[in-house]
Design brief:
Protein name: Putative NADH dehydrogenase/NAD(P)H nitroreductase C882_1267
Organism: Caenispirillum salinarum AK4
Number of strands: 4
CATH superfamily: NADH Oxidase
Enzyme class: oxidoreductase
Cofactor: FMN
CATH topology: NADH Oxidase
Oligomer: single chain
CATH architecture: 3-Layer(aba) Sandwich
Keywords: Flavoprotein, FMN, NAD, NADP, Oxidoreductase
Largest sheet: 4 strands, antiparallel
Strand content: 5-15%
Distance between the termini: 24 Å
Structural class: alpha+beta
Radius of gyration: 18 Å
Strand order of the largest sheet: 1-2-4-3
Number of domains: 1
Amino acid sequence: MPEQAPLSDTALDQVFGNGRTFKAWRDVPVSDDLLHRLYDLWKLGPTSANCSPARVIFVKSAEAKERLKPCLSPGNLEAVMAAPVTAIVGYDTQFYEWLPELFPHTDARAWFAGNPPLIDETAFRNSSMQAGYMILAARALGLDCGPMSGFDRARTDAEFFPDGRVKSNLLVNIGYGDRDALRPRGPRLAFDEACVIE
């Protein structure tokens, strides 16, 4: 017998079945306390050697939105400006400096120090996974999300991560979506089109 029971169909629908990518938002704020709760959930998702490279700036204020505005592609401008929060998900290019604390049972720092290709690959992959955890955690908390990659990364980095240590990966709008503005869900591949069991 499994040690944990599966989530209910209602919970699964909230996180997956009814979860959508939103571009239109209701004018309902997202509290700082809820963002803290969100982080406390998604930080628990697994990463390579517990490296946890994601670094996030939650853009909420009108001033911060104006700073982000020139970094956006025209097609994403309206959605970002309307969203209560936009998370700039980046990755720490020196994440390995935290490994003595995060992965203390071996010298994992030595795996990465002085190896820029491995650092970049690991940081980008794992921060992408962490962004996925953020989206699922947000849905579990009753929030909606709109992840996007249509932005100028170099300009965003210069504006929000000026010391060069953190590099942006993607944006995730967070709030309470306007379901009336959704288009029909796009199709997904069938199991046999995407998977093989060997």
